[in-house]
Amino acid sequence: MMHSGAGTASMPVEWGFHLPMTDESLTVQRCMAEDHELLRQIKQGDTERFREVIDRYQQHVGRIVRRRVPADHVEELVHDVFVRAYSGLTQFSEKVSLDHWLAGIAVRTCYDFWRMQRRREIPVSNLAEDHHRWIERVLSPQSEETFRDEVKHREAQEVLAWALDQLSPENRAVVTLVHLDGYSVREAAALLGWSVVNVKVRSHRARQALRKILSGSLRGEHHETTE
pTM for the full model? Predict the structure, then answer.
């Protein structure tokens, strides 16, 4: 039994007890280390190895892009993401993981895509009865988690595609990240490269704009935001 007191030697700090790292944590750290070493070699001139970055993260980038743009533009934008990544390798910081860095580029690439598009004018009359029932449900008071559960329904996907087309590119980007994907305001700001304050204000305005569009559709009105 150990006793406290002046004559008892204190336990060296380096002998302190630590919870063991999980296999998942070790895997993440190992992958980050491998990615960082790979990027260092590419920066030093072994540019052919960038193909390994594409092979590792093409599906990851594809999932992000696929949620944000029409299917016939996905392949083109995924290609653009990796072109931007290659061109911006000098800006990569080893404080972040490669998958997170690529996610930010993917989000901003999709945002730029919508900035270049002319908004489609889709008549409210195109919305079916099922769509209107979903809109009534989603406009009722509810939590963010309930809202995200609701948008998984088929009719929700169709209504959201219509409603998001009515939003400005900025509002669309924030609604998708914060209210649909569930990112925090701080995380969304990091991905977009905007200030936290900007995203926080935009998040509130964007949610209001989306609700205005959805509620207007029930009355047969058309709203278009320009913020």
Answer: 0.70
